[in-house]
Fold each of these.
Amino acid sequence: MPDEQMAPETAYRLVHDEAMLDGNARLNLATFVGTWMDDHANRLYIESADKNMIDKDEYPQTAEIENRCVTMLADLWHAPDPARAIGTSTIGSSEACMLGGLALKRRWQTARRAAGLSTERPNLIMSSAVQVCWEKFCNYFEVEPRYVPVSDEHRLLDGHDLEKYVDENTIGVVAIMGVTYTGSYEPVEQIAAALDRIADERGHDVPIHVDGASGAMVAPFCRPDLTWDFGIERVASINTSGHKYGLVYPGVGWIVWRDVQALPEDLVFRVSYLGGDMPTFALNFSRPGAQVLLQYYLFLRLGFDGYREVQQCSLDVAAYLSEGIGEMEAFDLWSDGKDIPVFAWRLRDGHTANWTLYDLSDRLRMKGWLVPAYPLPDDLADVTVQRIVVRNGFSRDLASALLDDLRTEVAYLDSLDGPIPRAGGNAPFHH
């Protein structure tokens, strides 16, 4: 820390200039997190930057708006009684996942104690392609993770062989609406059907938490025919990221339970506001209230039709890009961006021994594009893919420019008469 003060203009310029060294957020095709909002949202953000979400006595109307957002999401996800559904905003969907996992663990513990059974060794079942926040949950809250490995035959958790993993200590199964690696939806209905069979045969009644970090704000608008939410009785809770396809700046997430029975009462703290009672369940205390107001602004501004139009536009751009990349001789598509506007591709077998997708990622970075390359998990760890995330604000025009640069860089790499030298192993992209 400097010994003396400096003029605010000087301090601003120092910070501003260093921040320019970061990449251009709009060209970051690695992140799911929103990088653009309209001018009215930006103005509202500045006006509400001082609001503390945890201080519900001081900011009761912000707390009321949070409740309205929860009710809207519960209705969007077909909760049995949206007006009575319980939920909360969070810093992001990682915190929401922690809360969902805690509720599953506590429900299991309560049922086991009531039956006079041991509460040791709880386990949680999930795909090996799960986002790292679930690994953190299991580590921090002492739950055994049971990973169902993805393979070329079963690229998602689809209920296959689930009976090998479920036992009396299983607190729940995580189903992903939009796998981070590829963007594909896991078939929640198939997973629930497999758990129904296990319940009938063995008596293990296992709930589902749907990690809809991305897809829970895409599927309701663009795949209304898909059954994945509280319409499936076995789904106990759903989380999403308001700052992903909820279209808000980072960071805000949401979690909703299907009813009050799905969230154990002893996990809920109660505070008084507006002369009434306000239940709260969170890991964080002080946190920004501005993003909650931004989420409400977008719910009002866009409505159902507006969200459908925005998400469909992103899906159309993803389809345009995936079609263009799929037509290139060098690549095979791994997914096509039809679920969420995210897709991945691999280098076609036998195309070249002179370069890899890591080299292509480096070449694209020289032109400002951040397009990650990384290996798939576990049984597919020998498969390297590249992935593109299309977000609101990434236009068809930008997509065309990306395709032009991609073709140019592939042509350059294909023109090499020998392999690119490497000093060491490739550093994988971390989700």
Amino acid sequence: MGLALPLIIIVFVVVILFSSIKMIPQGEAAVIERLGRYTRTVTGGVTLLIPFIDRVRQRIDTRERVVSFPPQAVITQDNLTVAIDTVVTFQINDPARAIYGVDNYLVGVEQISVATLRDVVGGMTLEETLTSRETINRRLRGELDAATAKWGLRISRVELKAIDPPPSIQQSMEMQMKADREKRAMILTAEGKRESDIKTAEGEKQARILSAEGEKHAAILAAEAERQAMILRAEGDRAAKYLSAQGEARALQKVNAAIKSSGVTPELLAYQYLDKLPQIAQSEAATMWMIPSQLGDSLEEFAKAFANKGDDGVFRYESQSVDEDTKEMAEAENTDKWFDTSTDPELAKALAEARAVANKHVDAPDPTQKPAPTERSGELPSSPGGSSTLGLPTGNQQPDPENA
């Protein structure tokens, strides 16, 4: 018994010491009561208490807390029920008020947030509720901060975590959104098709303009070529007719000179006439022919008119004397050049120039530039002698009889 009493005293003292020393961690606060009455609030560190007189009423977490409340059914202005989840972020600034000012501050925050949420959402339609989250969050934070200030709480943030409309309304909204997306897709498709049609029409317009310009230039070139060809053909026909007439005149001159140089007599003419009569009779078109009965008288009158009467009383035709020019005309000419088929160098040059012009690329003319003055279309470059490039006679120039 002598040893037990000191041991009991030692244990009692140790228990008293442990009960009088309290360790408060950082981020917590302890509300101290003395004989049931609030005395002070202590934060992180070592705190000494009076045994059996002071006690720790409650430890309060002074850090910011994030509390998520379960979904709450709220009726909107258009009488639709939606479930809204809220998240509240708060911090206890005055632990004594949080303990003595309200029985349960978490329940108080939840109830005030639900009542404020129903008041705010009740004045909005469903579409406004879905699109006005920021407005609802701001009003909820203001109402909660004002209501919980006397509890020692500071509401730092309020967020709507989810807004769930009824399944039927959600399905209708999905259908509406799908219809809106399809409408926008159809509008965009129509806009794209319209733009495509406009671009295609512009391209076809430009293509038709360029095609018309090409056809225009082609028609101009074709008309110019046809005009040049007609001018050249006309020049050739004119030259051919002129040369043909000159040839016929030359032939008549040759025949006349040959007759004069040969000394033809009336007897020879009569003989030639009688010699050709059988050939006239052999013609298929001649069914009947007649010999003039006064042929001899005609020949006699011809002889008297052009012949001289001799001493024996017979009229004899004597050819007239032929001058040197007539004899020279009656002589044979060199006809080797008539059958020369070689190309005239000047004609070959003109054809080469025409081919170069035909093969030249034609560009669309600039409408802002004035065309440069050119020579008259269809005119051929003249040679120094006054003849055309093709060697055709011009204006008053007469061809050389020797080359006719």
Amino acid sequence: MSAPTSATSEGPSRTLTNRSVDEDAIPGEDTSEVTKLFAERLQAWKHAVAYLEDYVTATEKTNHAHGKEYERVLKTVKDPLKQGHHFDQSLGGIAGMFENMRSNTQGISNQHYETAKQLKGAIVPIFDRLHTEIKNKSKELTKGAGKGSKAVDKARAQTQRHIELLGQHTATFDSHSGHMKATEDPYILQRGVNHRLNKQVQEENNNRQDLISVQNSFAQFEAHIIQTMQHGMGQFLQVMTTQAEHTKTAYGDMVGTSQRIPLDFEWNGFIKRNNTVLIDPSAPARSFSDISFPNQNHRSTQPLISGSLEKKGKIMRSYDTNYYVVTPSKFLHEFKTDDDLAKDPVPELSLYLPDCIIGAVNGQKFNVKGKDVSKGKIGGAFSMSHEIAFKAHTPQAANQWWEVIRQAAGTVTNEMPTSPVSGSDSPGATQPIHEEKQTTPLQTEGVENSSKSADNSAEPGSAVTPGSAAPTSATTAPSSATPAESGKN
């Protein structure tokens, strides 16, 4: 028996995707293609081992009936191998070994009955155990890489649906001049695409690593299969040496043929025949920053102004810093952070500005009164109007925010509103408030007195609290606010 050699082969040349600066968000490849190929190859090896197992079993039975009955042994290897295209058809491989077995079996029709018991008790179990190992390998492939492919397909389907939703509502924005629901805001939808696309890329890269691990392990597993075959055939030779000289010579030739198969012979041929399908382990993984998708930079997705503001709490009366955005769809959205990747960027608060009232600026402070429509039309119908006190980091930043909000707000007043907003309850209302004369200003305390009261009740700290937005300055399309230390007026 020759010493087993290590399996060596050149890596496949196919990459998982064509690399470019801009990549498709949803690749057109079949994620299960590699898994199917390896599953089919395992089937080929399983059938190859089954041929050997059947051969030895039939040999044992044939020893009971000698010459004529031994023709049954020949029938077990008469037909071509199942999935035979996976094996090299040239001499020196698995296909050549079976051809050699067919020719020698024809000449050993006078085997002895005494060897039947030894064949059944010692040789058949070797190939039976190998057969079981290949079956277990198939189950491992299905439960491992197979599930990873399904996870990738599911993540891609979710991303595709969100991209299509973004395309639908960006088109609605263009045709309806930006009048839409908060949940349909293209800015929100694009951030949702970012979130799902990031999860998709993680699933793709995880599946890719699983497939590379499977691919790398196959060379060693196939070497083990061939080595076990060689071992079984060696044991088979020892049993058959007690047979007649003709039988000994025939089986010696069959075993010699199997022993001469290099451990990497079939694997190298498999790599060459399938180098356009197998994954190249040296190819780089996908990167979220290199991917583009339709309507990624549509004008409806670009905020009119964004940054951190301090909002006065209803109970503790202290200021809390959050990330705020005014979108072209005339929504003022509140987020805990501007990070799209950590979690799905769903607004904590959404105000439809044409249905809101904004008071005057007093230093760093201004108030906005309206209904939270972040839960959609149904939820917004049951929500109450709230007067929200905002505080910018600097008076200049406050003026920038106030100017952008004023242009979209339904009512601008010098008084601080204290009663529910008149007009529509939701962004879907057909008659939003656009001028001061449509709503009588509410008789409340002046802006200056209200601002001083807010300062006395709770003085905000200068440090940004954990979980607050990363940016520290408000940015608008025409200009940017200069960040300043928050806390004091």
Amino acid sequence: MAGSTPPVTTGPRPEGSQDKLKVALGCGVGATIETYDFIGFGTAAALYFGSAFFPGSDPLSATLMSFATLGVGFAARPLGGVIAGHLGDRIGRKPVLVGSLLIMGIATVLIGLLPTYQQVGIWAPVLLVVIRIVQGLAFGAEWGGAILMTFEHAPWHRRGLYTGITQAGFPVGLLLANIAFLFSADLDGTWAWRLPFLLSAVLIVVGILVRLKVDESPEFEELKNSGEVSKNPLVEVLRDDWRNVLRALCLRVVETGGYALSVTFLMSYLESNGTPESVTLFALSFAAALGIAATTLWGRASDTFGRRAVYLVGCTVSLVWGIPMFLLADTGSAVVITIVFVISYAVCQNSLAGVQGAWFSELFNAKTRTAGTSLSYQISAVVSGFTPFVATALYAQTGWLGPAVLFSAYGLLGLIAALITSETWRPVSVAAASAEKEKTVVGTASR
């Protein structure tokens, strides 16, 4: 195995903190809101933004430019991840969580207020790009802090389950976004895409109130109290742990790039082939609803079978799913299209997302954990951000076969990355946690 095997990192409490479930749910609520905001942009880009902001182009070119704007937000995510990683390892996980949610909320509401091209000309797409960059920075700051807060509050032997709960906030956000667009689809004019963004204001208020009640990570508090907080976590993780950064990056690409192809691009593909918006949005909403449970269960499975074992399953399914996905989508059947989204999302994407929170966190030491996980996670987002653009260009040249092969190629990359990345969780780890708990109980009783 390339590189050294990282130790399974654990906190001082084998059974986790007293607030472990509240933290997991609180971080999941924030993840829900940020996903609603960020992913809602993808839905609007696929269905509405081409005509609203790039009306002078032919339909295919307008779609390309709309997806390019979508990609800009993903391109900004690594910078957000770098900033959040540095601050999360320097001043704490909680301030980053609250700040990222507030910034994302303001940016999303502003999208709902934007003038269209018909109203202000070229300034409309310019403003859209600027706000999308702000969204990207905020979303890039979100994941590392939310996952690590959950991970570091969770019991040793259930970190897959608890981080899976937080990760489940993402399909909840996807579900809410698509329900909002489904119900607004029949509204007149631009209200069909404005209303879902404006409704984000309500969610943001709820999210901020929830996150303010979440306690700081106990592991970070210990680092701070012992004076071991890293002075420059980004430099340290790139110097000492760059191999794990690269491995996690490749592991992440298969999930995020696969999502961009099998959800964002596929929605546009189906619409261009005459599939009603209501069918596509319902199918994706149904898959997202299943994904809430699926993400959590995949995370729990990684506590039983290991992180890598579950990841290998998801990557293998992704590898063989590319061509069947498009063949089935082309049937035009609402039932079959729904099945396509369920397999693409609840199986391919969720099996990977449900494991990432625990596996990525275990690859890095506590004092550089936010920097390491955020950097690898968010750099990979650049690939996914421009995947719909690349897939649309491939489709123009090769038809659906090009995007299908690209999806399978992502699966192959993930499979290779999983095989060369160390397993961080084994049954012996559970035994060690139980032994430590027993020792703690005995020690307390003797005092």
